[in-house]
Structure formats: C-alpha cells, structure tokens
Design a protein that fits this description.
Layout (H helix, E strand, L loop, with lengths): L3 E6 L3 H11 L5 E7 L2 H11 L3 E5 L7 H11 L4 E6 L4 H10 L3 E4 L5 H11 L4 E2 L1 H22 L6 H11 L4 H8 L3 H15 L4 H10 L6
Parallel strand pairs: 1-2, 1-3, 3-4, 4-5, 5-6
Amino acid sequence: MTKIRVLVVDDHTILRDGLCALLTPTGDIEVVGEAANGRDALNMIGELQPDIVLMDIHMPIMSGLEATRFIRNEYPFVKVIALTQYEDKEYVFPMIEAGAQGFISKTSASSELGTGIRSVYQGDSYLSPAIAKLLVEDRQLGNATSNKGNSYHQLTNREKEILKLTAEGHTVREIADKLIISPKTVEGHKTNMMSKLNLHSTAELIKYALRNGIITV
C-alpha cells in the first residue's frame, strides 16, 4: 500500500509530537519529517519528497505563509494544508491565496486531520467546518455589500441628490431650499431612497455614502 508522505511543520515541539502520534496509527499516512519553521521545511522538501506539508502559519525565521508561497512555486507537486489556532479571515485568506489546498483549525477534532490529508492528497480541497463557516459568512457579507452598492443604480437622479446632500450633513429644510422643492417632498424622496438601499438611519446612510465614494472625508 502506498502511504501518504507527510512533513509536519510547527514551532511547538509538543504539538509536532502530538500530530505525529495522531497520524502514526492511521496505516496509510507516514510522517517523513518534522520542521520547526518554514525555512527548515524548505530545506527538507527536496530530500524527503513529501506529498503533503502540514504547515503552521505563525513561526519564527520564516512564516508558514512565506513558505507556502515558495513551495507552490518551486515544488508544485507538494500540497500544503495550513494549521492554525486562529479562525479569522486575516489569517485564512492569505494562506488560501498563497496556494494552500487545505485549512485545518487546531481546535478541530483529531479525526479531521486524517480526513483532510486524504482529501487533499486525492486532489480535493479540505476546510475545517469552522473555516468553511467563516468563508460562507464572508461571501454572504460580500454579496450583501455588493447588492447594496448595485441598488444605487435604482435611485432616481433626485434621490441621488438627496442622498449626497443628506450624507454631507444638510437638513431637510436646507435640502428643500437648495433643490427648490418642499420639505415634505424631500422627506418622501429620502424615505424611498433609504428603502431602496435598505438603510435605516442617517448614520447608516452616511456610512453607505462614504463606502461607495458618494462623499469623501
């Protein structure tokens, strides 16, 4: 039986020992080496020829992010699974962009380790449920922001004028005088405009205007 060759990279000896202990009994996975930082891992890859590198992100000398970028450029046959205790997109997204094919949280169940390694080895991607949830939430937030931005094009020219003037801090009376319309008409346009943009307060309206470049500070 061909075994999946794994290089474990983490700056904590206890954690490396724990990972090796979890993987050894699996039968189809073989730990071929250990490294305490990204630079040592790169020095070992050419000799050990691992199939998978379990890569911690935060390490001294060379981070997992830097090492992953190098591996994907120099050793495209080697696949990287990121290991981290941080479930924030500021850590997850850069590793995925660098070329990591898997992402396993250190808080995950131990059974996920073997599952993730086998999935990535077979050519699939693998994300811990916590990481997958993060990606879904970020995508939903992005869609919501995008949809809100697209809604701007549904506004009439008058509504766009009132949006800009309101965001700049003008009162309803000032806007009415400036546009030569009644305050009641301004209020009507403002209500329709905020409904189309799904905004519920002047504070939200100002944030929307800033985010979409309608006003600047």
